[in-house]
Structures are given as C-alpha cells and as structure tokens.
TrEMBL record:
Gene3D superfamilies, per database record: Jelly Rolls
Stretches the record annotates as Disordered: 1-20
Pfam hit, one: Cupin_3
Organism lineage string: Bacteria, Bacillati, Actinomycetota, Actinomycetes, Kitasatosporales
Name this protein carries in UniProt: Cupin domain-containing protein
All copies of domain (S)-ureidoglycine aminohydrolase cupin, residue ranges: 60-96
Amino acid sequence: MAGLVRKSLDSPEEVRPFEDGKGKLELVDAGAGAVGRATFEPGWRWTQHIKPIAGTDSCQASHACYVISGRMHIAMDDGQEDDFGPGDYMICPPGHDAWVIGDEPCVLVDWQGFADYAKR
C-alpha cells in the first residue's frame, strides 16, 4: 500500500483545453489513476467540443463525478436522460452526450473517466 499522497487540482500536472475555449480539464495523477477537475463553460456540448478530439460518435468514457457548481444534462445513447447540479454524485457509463445548462460554468471532479478525456 502506498503512503500518504497529497495533490492539488489548483496546481494540476496537466491541463487540456477544450475546443473553442469552452473549458478545460485539470489533471493530477493520484498514483492509482488520474483525478480531474473539469470546467465546462456555458454553451459547451460534448458533440461540439470534445467529439472532434475523441473521434467517436458519443463519449465512450465512464465517469464517476461530483458536481461542484453549475448544471449539466446527460443524454445516454439508449435514451435515458437526467440533469445534474451542485452536490450531485454521478455515475455515467460510456455512450452519452452532455451539455451545460444555463449561463454558469459547470465544474466537476471525476475519479474515473478523465485519464484520456480530451487528449489530443
């Protein structure tokens, strides 16, 4: 078992900007995998701002997230949809689109799906 680990998302080891300046992903390596904080700006949508980077029809990452601020709508390929906001914990399997709701950035922390997210 590893010893005590301290990382700060305020001093990320890697920053990945999204298309058109619609947000960014800040990553740290926690030893057991990447942990990321993403800021999605109003008007951000996966199919517009990440799909060109990912090259897939829908997001194929699996996410385990906590929403800090703002709101996001998730639309699964199978038709299931839901909105998430501050204080919500979300499990989101592969096969989805997502977009920011409203005029406030959506900020979330993901412990599972950001290792290769928006990676060029």
